[in-house]
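Hello again,

I reread your note about wanting to compare the complex against the isolated chains. To keep things tidy I'm splitting this into two emails, and this first one only covers the full assembly. Below are the input lines as submitted, including protein chains and any nucleic acid or small-molecule components. They are followed by the predicted structure of everything together. The single-chain runs will come separately.
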Amino acid sequence: MADFAPERPTLWQASTLPPRILRVTDLNRRVRALLDGDPTLADVWVEGEISTPSFPPSGHCFFTLKDSASQVRAVIFREELARSAVRPQHGMAVICHGRVRAYEPQGVYQLYVESITPAGAGDLHARYEQLRARLANEGLFDQDRKRPLPRWPRRIGVVTSPVGAVWQDIRNVVRRRYPLVELVLSPTVVQGEAASPAVVVALKRVFAQRGIDLVILARGGGSLEDLWAFNDERVVRTLVTSPVPVVVGVGHESDVTLADFVADVRAPTPSAAAELAVPDGTQLPAILDRLRDRASSALLGGAAQRRRQLVAEARALVSAAPDLGAARQRTADLVDRGHRALTARLERHRATLDGVRDGLRALGPAATLARGYAVARLADGTIVREPAQAPVGERLEVVIARGLLGTRVEKARSDGGEELLR
Amino acid sequence: MTQAESISDAELAERPFDELVAELQRIVAALEAGSVGLEESIALYREGLRIHAACEERLRNAELTITELGRRAGATASVGAGEPVPADPGER
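Full-complex prediction:
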């Protein structure tokens, strides 16, 4: 200080005006107004380390915020302190949000803190938001990029930790719902520094597999730091290259990572991802039965329609009869021939219709067999209808309701048939 | 008889489940369309029953298959090698 003192007078001696003398209060008021007028200082985020916090009876907390080169006084008032998740501690690295004002009575300026967040988390939040905005701008999260999941997957790639509950949960869900698939685990660590590159490698490894229909990327819940690999740009960009749809199930319902945004389908949890990945197999027997029933009724319905067609044809023939009747007036002979032709045709149609009906009756083989009937077949599957088809000694398969009997013909009788059963 | 009998027993056992269901759906659709003759309808119907039974069988006996990638070759070496290694023999 002493070195500079002689120069001071020269500064205002150069002025022709006498110096304006301020009172201390005026000075502090001017400084305060200056600071209050700066919009940047009215809303600042300051990162630093808390030093020597004090908690006087007023309920406020005073501390110093410092970094390696500088420090600034800070205060957080009782109300804000009560709301804060973080209680100031000496040495704590934080980001403080608030405004800068001068405190006139003491001629100091300080940071009036409204909220405190741990520095690491604040940093992650900021990076998350920045990256999210950038990737969204590139269109990576657009809805029209989303691919539908295959309805009947056969091979499902699973990228997760091979140890722990998540992999177990996924296996359990798939086993319960649709055990017809193959799960292809591409193991990876999902936490810590190594997680991001490891997840990238595991994803690429499973993408390179042939015949994978979809990929599940999953991890259990955790803090923002724990889930950080799923916000890593490399992971997100690798997901974008997936040749097949990806379901991402990370953390809990409330955890939304950038991997979730880029996924074709976002699942709230790993188990939910597994549920979304496979159809509900418990419905399959019912679906299959419905298909079978539809086949049955289509077949029977088709036969009924054929029957209606025959009836319609027969009616058409009958309605053609008056013409024949008119012809009778010309030659009785012609009429007789006409009637004979008509009758013969109707007979033929009836025979066909009977054949159809018998065929349909025989069709419910299960029902017929259940009533105690049996079907005898030759080795080539031909159904035996007359003894001549199966000479003595011939092997026969006799199909009955609950199975099949291998038999050999011992004797044959050609008379009878249906009436032998009576 | 026509395409209806094209699925052999071996195929019934081997073909992916979803393909069998699709085949069954095709058969039902053909029957419902009513465009095939009676004989063929009956053949189709029989084929449908066979597939239905095969699907039920498959569901009854299904066991989850699990493969783990890269276990033998180390964490990073086997990209694309894809040699299936049973993950957990105790599970099967």
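For quick reference: The first helix of chain A runs from residue 7 to 13.

B.
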